[in-house]
UniProtKB/TrEMBL annotation:
Its main location: membrane. The lineage of its organism: Bacteria, Bacillati, Actinomycetota, Actinomycetes, Micrococcales. It is found in: Membrane. This is Amino acid permease. It comes from the Bacteria. The keyword Repeat does not apply. It comes from Microbacterium terricola. Pfam families: AA_permease_2.
Length: 506
């Protein structure tokens, strides 16, 4: 598979950072399982299924469950590419430093600009969706004002936990992981085994969707059911400098996030379909809250309310993980002098060892978005759609950059390697990503120009403003941090670990 010895020694964490041009500034207290929990609670199959089950069923019916398999397989390929990259570059920020070291400063600026805004918007969307469940638990009437207040409370709660440091982030992430597993696998199995009201053949029943145009267009329209689920695994790499032995552990955590997340989502989605007392009403859109109805009919009123506690725990953990990922990206961006306010954003608390100022931004900007949604509730759906597209675009910019380096001769030098299969996986991952972007960016067919093109317009505004700022302010000229050095770094790592011999060794 590789040209390295089977038991090749790897660099210790400090020496690896030294090779990459940085020194230790964080507390490496995050274990493999805590890192996996962070990525899993960000990916959050419970949040994803809860948020989009009704939409997927009304557009694509029960067969829309297969999008979980399709997108899961595609994103697993992306995760494997990311795994090789982070194994060579286990540094904070994920998408930004990977794009910088694989391609260059300008390219990294655009990739990170898209990704940071997509992350901030995702925090907004998850907190907004979670507010409704909090209101239901306490029997509150959900209106614009109460939703706004609850959303702000969720954002501030996550911020306070993040302020406390990496250990508390790890603890709450593990609690969120337990809530996710109970909420998706546990409940899904219970519904499938004890509350089944449908036959398994229902997953091949289009239930008349698609009409005269055939079912293919309806099935493609339901792609969001999977596309919204499978991102978040990259957050495992965002906190690389807080993980012990990250070059080995983070790739494993990423793969685990995809595999466990996919299985969890299948159990959850499948369980709701099989336990639905009136599937026709859900598919026709007559049932406004299908999951709530299913839970009431299977768990009873008390059981459904107890399950709401599990759901809210998952939402809080998801917001927490998103804030952590966004703050580390902002820190990494600022550490290299690539963003306005770099000196302020790159400060790390000497007590908690977290980038507190970047965390404040990761809470404040989503709060401002929430204010806009409070003014105009119709903004929530396009905001959510833009977040997904922005993240997929930034993902594929990294995948493309990795393929470019492979063509130039780069052989990833981290302890996690795909060997000769690396370039094959890279090419297929890029092809999948382009297909996913097409599905997300494809204009709607409502006939209303703004509605049909809002997602592409949003991406255009973000990328356009980023490009204008880059050309006018030239942040790339203000940064002397390393870039485009994938081959040189790989050679140095191999030299230090003895994977290749120098002239003096002969």
């Amino acid at each position: 598979m590789t040209n390295r010895p089977p038991q090749q020694p790897s660099l210790d964490d400090s020496e690896h950072l030294e090779v990459l041009g940085y020194s230790n500034s964080f507390d490496r207290s995050m274990s493999l399982w805590a890192n996996f929990a962070l990525g899993f609670t960000y990916l959050s199959p419970l949040v994803g299924v809860y948020s989009l089950f009704a939409l997927a069923m009304t557009v694509g019916g029960p067969p829309s469950i297969f999008w979980i398999v399709i997108v899961g397989a595609g994103q697993l390929l992306v995760a494997l590419v990311f795994g090789e990259i982070v194994s060579q570059y286990p540094i904070h920020g994920g998408i930004y430093p990977w794009a910088r070291r694989l391609w260059g400063r300008r390219y990294a600026w655009l990739a990170a600009w898209a990704y940071v805004w997509a992350l901030l918007v995702t925090i907004t969307a998850v907190a907004e969706y979670g507010a409704g469940f909090v209101a239901s638990l306490f029997g509150l009437t959900v209106d614009a004002t109460s939703g706004f207040v609850i959303t702000l409370a969720l954002l501030v709660l996550a911020l306070l936990i993040n302020f406390s440091g990496t250990r508390w982030l790890s603890r709450v992430a593990r609690i969120g992981l337990a809530a996710e597993l109970i909420g998706v696998i546990g409940l899904g199995l219970y519904l499938l085994i004890f509350q089944r009201k449908q036959e398994f053949s229902v997953f091949f029943d289009t239930m008349g969707l698609g009409g005269e145009n055939g079912y293919a267009s309806a099935f493609l329209g339901a792609a969001l059911a999977g596309l919204f689920l499978f991102y978040g695994f990259e957050a495992c790499g965002d906190v690389a400098e807080e993980v012990e032995n990250p070059a080995r552990r983070i790739p494993r955590a990423m793969v685990l996030t995809i595999l466990v997340g996919g299985v969890s989502a299948l159990f959850s989605f499948g369980g709701y379909v099989m336990a639905a007392p009136d599937l026709g009403a859900i598919v026709s859109g007559e049932e406004a809250d299908p999951i709530g109805t299913i839970l009431e009919s299977t768990l009873g009123t008390v059981g459904a309310r107890l399950f709401l506690v599990v759901v809210i725990t998952a939402f809080i953990s998801c917001v927490l993980s998103l804030q952590a990922a966004a703050s580390r990206l902002l820190f990494s961006f600022a550490r290299d002098g690539m963003i306005p306010g770099s000196r302020w954003l790159s400060k790390v608390s000497p007590r908690s060892k977290v980038p507190t100022n970047a965390l404040i931004v990761a809470c404040t900007v989503p709060a401002l978005f929430c204010l806009l949604i409070w003014i105009n509730a119709d903004l929530l759906v396009p905001i959510t759609a833009f977040a997904i597209l922005g993240i997929y675009v930034s993902f594929q910019m990294v995948v493309l950059a990795a393929l470019r380096q492979r063509v130039k001769g780069w052989k990833p030098a981290g302890p996690f390697s795909l060997g000769r299969w690396g370039i094959v996986v890279n090419i297929v991952a890029l092809a999948y990503g382009i297909f996913a972007i097409y599905l997300l960016a494809k204009p709607g067919e409502s006939g209303v120009v703004l509605t049909d093109w809002i997602v592409l317009l949003g991406l255009g505004v973000v990328m356009g403003t980023g490009l204008v700022y880059m050309l006018l302010a030239r942040p790339d000229r203000k940064s002397d941090a390393p870039s485009g050095d994938a081959i040189a770094v790989a050679d140095e790592i191999q030299r230090r670990t003895g994977a290749i011999r120098t002239i003096s060794d002969k």
